[in-house]
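If your schedule permits, I should be very grateful for your opinion on a structural question. I have a record of one protein: its chain in single-letter code and its fold written as C-alpha cells. Would you kindly read the sequence against the C-alpha cells and tell me how you understand this chain to fold? Thank you for your consideration; the sequence and its C-alpha cells are set out here.


***
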Amino acid sequence: IPNLCPERPIRKPRLGAELSSVYYNSLLSNLRTPSKAVFSTNLVAIMRPFQAYLGAVMTGNKNEALIAASMINSLGSAYAEGLRAWRHNWDLGINRKAQSYAGKFRLEKDLENFKLLESHIMREGTKNEQRAYGILSNIVNFNTSPIARYSVNIMGAGDALARTVIGRMEMRHRAARSVIESSTTPLKQADINKLATKIDETFRDEIFTKDRYNQYVVTDNAAALAGDEAALTTALPQELQHLEKISSLPLGQFFFPFVRTGYNALRLTWAHTGLEKFSRKYHDIMEVSKTRPKVLEQYGIRPQDVEQARALMRGRMAAGTSIMGLTTLLAMNGFITGDLPYDNETRQLWKQNGIQPNSFTIPGSNVYVSYRTLEPWNTIIALFANLGSNMHAIDEDFFDEIGQKGAFMAGSILVDKSMLAGVDDLVTLFSASQMSGVRA
C-alpha cells in the first residue's frame, strides 16, 4: 500500500505486522494458555498480603501485621470490583476495542486509521493495489475477530481483574495505616478493619483514575508496578533491553516476542528464594533506603510504606524456603513427582506405569494433580521434587545431571512461562539433542 501521508511516513508494512499477529494468536491459541495465565496472575496478586503478614509476624512488627491482615479482610470487596473490571474488559475485547491495560497502541484507533484508507484505495488505487488491500483487510478482520483473539481477550480481562484487586488492597493498606497512625491507643484487628472499611474510599483517587468509559483503572505507581509484577509485564532492566530490540529485526518477532514475560517469571521465582538477598532490589529496600529514601521511588514505594515492602520480601523468601523443605519431604515419601526422568529407559517405565510428572499424588494410587499452574511455586517445587526423589543417588554424576537439567529448566521456563505452549515440543526436542551431545 503506498504512503498516502508523506508527512507521516509508514515505518513498517502493515502486512508484516498482521502476519506477525497471526503467528502470535496461533501461539496463544492453546486452551490451557489463557486459563493458566489468568490463574497464575491472580494467584500472585492474592498472595501478596498473606506473604506480607508472614514477613511482619516473623520480625514481630505488629503494626505491619495488622495492616496486612486488614488487606486480607478487604479481598471480598476487592474481588467484587475486580470481577466487574473483568467483565468490562472482556466486553471491550470482543468489541475490538483496546482493553484497560492493553499494550502499545489503541486497537480501535489503529483499525479506524486502516479503514480510512479503503475509500482512497478504491478510488485512486490500481487493480493490484485494490486487490492487495482486500487481502490485507481480510487478514486484519480475522486477527481482530473474537475467535482469533479469544486468548488475548481472556488474558487482558484477567490482568484487569488482578490489577483492580491489587489497587483495592492498596486502598485498604493506606486506610489501615491512617487508622493506626491517627489512634492514640492500641487497636484490635476488628476495630482496624471496621474503621478502615469506612474510610478506604477516601484513598480511591490516589490509586485509581477514571478512563474514557467512566471505569476505574489503576494509576498509582506502587499498585501499577505490583500489577506489572503479577502480570509479568515489568520493563526489562537496562542491560537486557537489547533483547526486546531484537524483535524489530527481520524474523526477530518470531523468536523474541515474549522475552519480557520469561524474564519476569524467572525474576518472580527468584524473589521467592533466599537468592533474593543478593539482588539490588533487596539491598535498596532493606539497607540503602535507611539513609537514602529516594531510592524507593523506582519501586513505587512511599517512605512510610517501606516496612510493608520489607515484610513482603521476607514473607516471600520464608514461604519459598518452607515450600522447598516440604516438597523435599513429600518427594522422599512418594507424595509428589518431579520432571520426567532424565534417561529414556526410566522415562518409558514411568509412561508404562501411568506415572504423571510434576504432580501431587498418593503412593500406590493412580490419582495425580498437576502443580504446573501454581506460579511461581511450580519451578521451585519441580526442582526440589527432583532433589527429594533422587536423594538416594546423590553423587558426582547426579550433580552433573542436575547442572544439565538446570540449563534445560531455564530454557523451559522461558518457553512455558512465556505462554509459548505451542512450541513446547520444539524446545524438548532441541534440549534432548543438546543433552545427547553432552553425554556423547
Notes: Strands lie at 208-210, 216-218, 359-361, 368-370.
